[in-house]
Amino acid sequence: MRLGYLQVSLTLINVLFLQFHLYLPMRVVRVRGDSKLCVGCRLCMLACSTAVFGVINPRKSAVEIVERRPETEGFSIVVCSQCGLCAEKCPEKAIAVVNRAYVIDVERCVRCWLCVEVCPVNAIWRRPGVDYPVKCISCGACVEICPRGALSLEESEVGVA
Fold this sequence. Notes:
The longest helix is centred in the N-terminal third of the chain and has 19 residues, at 5-23. This protein has a two-stranded antiparallel ribbon with strand order 1-6. The chain has helices spanning 5-23, 43-53, 85-89, 114-118, 141-145; strands spanning 27-33, 64-67, 75-78, 95-98, 101-104, 151-157. It is of the alpha+beta class.
């Protein structure tokens, strides 16, 4: 059976695209925090817990504002960098990119908590009343509510800090 010129061209284009696509870096959206602008109001934590769990409870937030020692002053913003290490290490492959952010599939998660242990920025947590790991999904609720602009959404390649 002879393939037409158009069919051969389309097949070749598809093969080249698939090969090229495998080498394209994956891009994700992540929340970036600027600690110099943070005043510690923790509105971001309230917005996060409301957006993700439907409750106003900062203890369920995937963003954490930590007060620094008195000698250094200010606040640190702890949020997932979307590096993908948790997905790479998850034995059940329960963490994958969904809507350009790493998300935990709670149905596949076996609660081994390995993701919490391997997170290089300590931004995957055990939270009270939640029986699976909690991490940022880059929804942007925290960014929208921050009165000082200390949080922003940015696009980056996986593995770039």
